[in-house]
Amino acid sequence: MRRNCFxxxxxxxxxxxxxxxxxxxxxxxxxxxxxxxxxxxQPDGTKYLPAPPDTMSLDFMRDFYYYQWGKSMRQTERGxxxxxxxxxxxxxxxxxxxxxxxxTIDSINTPELYRMIELLDSDCGYATRxxxxxxxxxxxxxxxNETTSVPSAEETHRRSGSYPSGHSSTGWGIALVLAEINxxxxxxxxxxxxxxxxxxxxxxxxxxxxxxxxxLAGSASIARLHADEGFQRQLKAAKxxxxxxxxxxxx
Length: 251
Description:
There is one protein chain. The chain is an all-alpha fold. The chain folds into two domains: 1-30; 46-250, Vanadium-containing Chloroperoxidase, domain 1, CATH 1.20.144.10. 71% of the residues lie in helices and 0% in strands. Helix 11 (186-203) packs across helix 12. The longest helix is centred in the first third of the chain and has 31 residues, at 2-32.
């Protein structure tokens, strides 16, 4: 009887430890990729986005044309920018948008703007997740067994879906919000967000249609976020910070 009780107690302890480790792991994952919304709260791309072009269609020929164009750009200055745009860490995104925004964005001098970009980095990427998994479109460099301008990321991206482009959705979604915060620089900001998507074609990770449809997903994500109280608070804080810094700059 004592042995049975001991076994039951040990099993309970083991189960408790496993559950605790699972909770810690889940918490660590959330902390690593902070967002306004859980991914399941984002609009489901499989319900409103069309399927990617069939490989026998004229639309795919257009995709192939732009894939060849992208390869021709890799050794140019624009190609170097495309390789740099592959980094979508919050720090990199802040750097990529700073010139267009007309102000250096970083975690020290603009913490509210930085926090906004950090959260949007996840949310806009989440907006493409369901469609990526559903369609599982091969990336162009995988389809044609070629290399990219960012070879270090090829293996980790090889089995993930190409359609829609998460980078493009994120770049466009962030551009929409930054243009709302700083409307005087809206054209420059939107142009930069557009370029981040085009960079994915140049780098060889996405087709043109992956990028174009991703901008719809990014726009849908931002529309959804405007109904979220957490986003509204952060947007208000970011606008307030920007206006204060602009006033100080003029003085």
